[in-house]
Design brief:
The complex is a heterodimer of chains A (113) and B (114). Chain A is mainly beta and 113 residues long. In chain A, 0% of the residues lie in helices and 46% in strands. Chain A contains no helices and 9 strands. Classes of the chains: A mainly beta (113), B mainly beta (114).
Chain lengths: 113, 114
């Protein structure tokens, strides 16, 4: 499985933007880039995913490098409720793949008031 | 729809006992996954079903573990002869075939083996 590399932890101030980086230099053509986050004592929560183009939704934006070897999850205004572990995951979307998610260690985001 | 439900939320059992967990996925989701998560680690894949068929199992799933999804609806995960190393959070997730909106996870069942 193609792997991702993320910083172990990051800190942000409340109401400021946060850029969470992810490196995936061995990404293949059928891999989508998925981001999930996990709040304390909860299961992971889907945030966003993309293939080549930048993506926006109500939770976040995903900026994907032109060579697809890295991506950045952008939280436009961090709130205390955004404190969580953020996972960047490559998911093989071929029809015959199980589409399971392989989680790494993620980035623990701490938000300071 | 209330999302993915898991029962129980917490389970404490003595070593050597059998335990069974239940997962009720989102009704229109045909794929169901089980993951295990230990403290400080990301979730690890255990097994997945497409409808009632169990299509893949991880090497982590020893012979003491069995999962079923009768009629392609709810699923159960049973652990026989529990060991202290089985203590973990067991997470269930469901999705539609393809990538859609991604997985929806339940809140998990926390197992403590004493």
């Amino acid at each position: 499985d193609a792997k991702t590399t993320q910083p172990n932890s990051m800190e942000s101030n409340e109401e400021e933007p946060v850029h969470l980086p992810c490196n995936h230099s061995t990404i293949s053509g059928t891999d989508y880039i998925h981001w999930y986050r996990q709040l304390p004592s909860q299961g992971p929560e889907y945030v966003i995913h993309g293939l080549t183009s930048n993506v926006n939704n109500r939770m976040a934006s995903l900026a994907i490098a032109e060579d697809r070897k890295s991506s950045t999850l952008i939280l436009h205004r961090a709130t205390l409720r955004d404190a969580a572990v953020y996972y960047c995951i490559l998911r093989d979307e071929r029809n015959n793949a199980g589409n399971m998610l392989t989680f790494g260690g993620g980035t623990r985001l701490m938000v300071k008031p | 729809d209330t999302g993915v439900s898991q029962d129980p939320r917490h389970k404490i059992t003595k070593r050597g006992q059998n335990v069974t967990f239940r997962c009720d996925p989102i009704s229109e989701h045909n794929r169901l996954y089980w993951y295990r998560q230990t403290l400080g680690q990301g979730p690890e894949f255990l097994t997945y079903f497409q409808n009632e068929a169990q299509l893949e199992k991880s090497r982590l799933l020893s012979d003491r573990f069995s999962a079923e999804r009768p009629k392609g609806s709810f699923s159960t995960l049973e652990i026989q002869r529990t060991e202290q190393g089985d203590s973990a959070m067991y997470l269930c997730a469901s999705s539609r075939t393809g990538f859609g909106d991604g997985y929806t996870f339940g809140s998990g069942t926390r197992l403590t083996v004493v």
